[in-house]
Design brief:
Length: 312
């Protein structure tokens, strides 16, 4: 049985009116948003690490600048998303603590290593590409601050995607055989993990039903995964590369690409913390927090001194 408040809330959702921070909302709606937005923010921050690995080894000065700018954008997205999360009453430090204790998730994709320079292209093209498909849909999410964050973030994310694709295109057009092989190797490693970014099949996704009803999610995991594949395969063909999926095939009747079954066992192992880099990623984040402690303390002491001066 819905209360009058809940009914009014659902009517607003149905009428496409955004929910704002100070509006009444069901506790479960608030909790779902804190869960999703914090996971999204953590992903942006942890997502800096695989690319950070290549800043000192970028092949040219310009590539280095581009990569650094992209990584800084991701930091901005993370901070922006933490702010959106705070409008729901969650505390940033608490949520980061929970991440470091391994209690909450961040995107599975960032638990894979970056082994060659082509990975910087592949991450931009496939990982940011998948992120965009998901985030374009979230621009229409029902919670106002999250929706507005997505509009801004999508603009930068499309730039990242093109940046990544251009790295791969350059390697395929002007590269040596060895460099071309690097591109294919990179796509082979990142293809399936990129498809896993969209989450479990709809039939195995505990949150999709309620999140669709609340219009937090505007499309299901499987819908967005299919959209990503459909738009990515022509780009793959233009590159002159393949994906490691013998079942991938255009289906004229469906008007979509068919594709093989994802290794869900691998996905759930990564979610449990057993992916190739899970431990390293969390260790790096914890160290960053510990090593920055003196800066935060100094800033607090300085702020206090300034305040005391003003009171005198
Ligand atoms: N990894 O019932 P559902 C980026 C969890 S892009 C880890 O389907 P939901 C940009 C899920 O949380 C990446 N966990 O859940 C960038 C839930 O666990 P819980 C970030 C996953 O929420 C690019 C459980 O499985 N983007 O950072 C994953 O309705 C390059 C059941 O799943 C976002 O976070 C996964 N792949 O749908 C940065 C987008 N999939 O919480 C740097 C916002 C599912 O019950 C470099 N999030 N889980 O313990 C969403 O759209 C949704 O949360 C989904 C999952 C679609 C990810």
């Amino acid at each position: 049985e819905m209360s009058a408040e809940e009914r009014a809330f659902q009517e607003k959702i149905d009428a496409e009116i955004k929910i704002e921070a100070k509006n009444w909302m069901p506790e479960a709606y608030r909790r779902t948003l804190i869960r999703q937005i914090s996971q999204h923010a953590h992903s942006e921050i942890v997502g800096m690490l695989p690319e950070g690995n290549w800043v000192t080894r970028a092949p040219t000065f310009k590539r280095k600048l581009q990569l650094m700018a992209k990584i800084q954008d991701e930091a901005g997205h993370g901070l922006y998303l933490y702010s959106a999360m705070e409008t729901l009453g969650a505390d940033r430090d608490d949520e980061i603590e929970r991440l470091h204790r391994g209690e909450v998730k961040y995107s599975s994709i960032f638990n894979y290593p970056t082994l060659n320079w082509a990975d910087m292209g592949t991450i931009g093209w496939l990982v940011d590409g998948a992120a965009i498909v998901n985030q374009v849909a979230l621009q229409r999410t029902s919670y106002g601050p999250y929706s507005r964050a997505m509009i801004r973030i999508c603009k930068e994310e499309s730039f990242h995607q093109r940046q990544g694709y251009e790295i791969l295109l350059t390697m395929m057009r002007e590269g040596t055989d060895e460099q071309k092989a690097m591109v294919q190797d990179s796509i082979n490693r990142f293809w399936w993990p990129s498809l896993m970014m969209f989450g479990p099949h709809d039939s195995d996704s505990p949150h999709t039903g309620q999140s669709m009803a609340w219009k937090i999610k505007r499309h299901t995991n499987d819908e967005l995964r299919q959209r990503f594949i459909d738009q990515t395969i022509p780009q793959l063909e233009f590159l002159g590369c393949t994906v490691p999926d013998p079942d991938l095939k255009w289906n004229e009747a469906r008007g979509h690409y068919d594709f093989g079954e994802i290794q869900w066992e691998e996905f759930y192992q990564v979610l449990k913390g057993n992916g190739p880099c899970n431990r390293e990623r969390l260790r790096t984040r914890k160290n960053a927090l510990d090593e920055g402690a003196w800066v935060r303390e100094a800033a607090m002491v300085y702020a206090k001194k300034q305040q005391q001066k003003q009171q005198q």
